[in-house]
Design brief:
- This protein has 202 residues and is α+β, with helices and mostly antiparallel strands.
- The protein is 16% helix and 32% strand.
- The protein has three helices and ten strands; from the N terminus they run ββαββββαββαββ.
- Strands 1, 2, 3, 4, 5, 6, 7, 8, 9 and 10 form a ten-stranded antiparallel β-sheet that branches.
- The longest helix has 13 residues.
- The radius of gyration is 16 Å and the shape is globular.
- About 9% of the residues have low confidence.
Length: 202
């Protein structure tokens, strides 16, 4: 059943900021593997943080209804994965840790393929939702076929290998989305196509 996002969302006012996507050019290889987080991350199976993310996307309106993030400070190629015969570039990005903007921040981007078979799965840190929901919110998501798919959330940044396994499940179809949303052209608001209430607790 398709439901308006706004009918199920938290009520708060998001800041209006410009959003930019990262260029698709492959960066240089990383000098070393990304470091392991100092704190132990936890998978998040809660609806409130996810609804906060969905609210923020809808607040941008139809024209801005997409995954977006502030330009990273730097980026490098971690490795090229084989996803069923399709090469997928795993790119690591860094950002200014003391930055004061509340835009999402790109941490990893897994992309490859062409035309209808192209995949572009990102790992984003959401500073605004982190403040509002009192977690250190990282999430795994993808735009495909006019929809936004949200696959996983973490309280803290997981090690690269954990995210790599999660994305491998996304690319193979084994990792089912927690939520899927879209904005029908001309509609007044976005719609929720999938919301996994069995896995997502309040």
């Amino acid at each position: 059943m398709v439901r308006p996002i706004s009918a199920a969302l938290l009520v708060w006012v998001a800041l209006t900021v410009p959003y930019q996507a990262l260029a698709d050019s492959a960066p240089k290889p990383c000098a070393e593997m990304p470091g392991t987080p100092s704190r132990k991350p936890k998978p998040l199976w809660k609806s409130v943080p996810l609804m906060s993310v969905l609210t923020k996307v809808e607040e941008r309106g139809e024209a801005g209804f997409r995954l977006a993030w502030s330009p990273p400070l730097s980026q490098c190629l971690v490795e090229t994965l084989d996803a069923g015969g399709m090469p997928i570039n795993a790119v690591h990005a860094t950002f200014l840790k003391d930055g004061k903007d509340l835009e999402d921040r790109l941490i990893y981007r897994f992309s490859g393929g062409e035309a209808d078979g192209a995949r572009d799965v990102v790992v984003l840190f959401d500073p605004l939702s982190s403040v509002l929901t009192k977690v250190h919110l990282f999430y795994v998501a993808e735009m495909r076929g006019g929809q936004i798919f949200y696959y996983a959330m973490f309280d803290g940044l997981p090690p690269y290998e954990t995210l790599k396994q999660t994305v491998a499940g996304v690319l193979s179809g084994e990792e089912k989305p927690l939520a899927v949303v879209h904005w029908q052209p001309g509609a007044k608001e976005g719609s929720i196509d999938v919301f996994d209430a069995d896995r997502l607790k309040r």
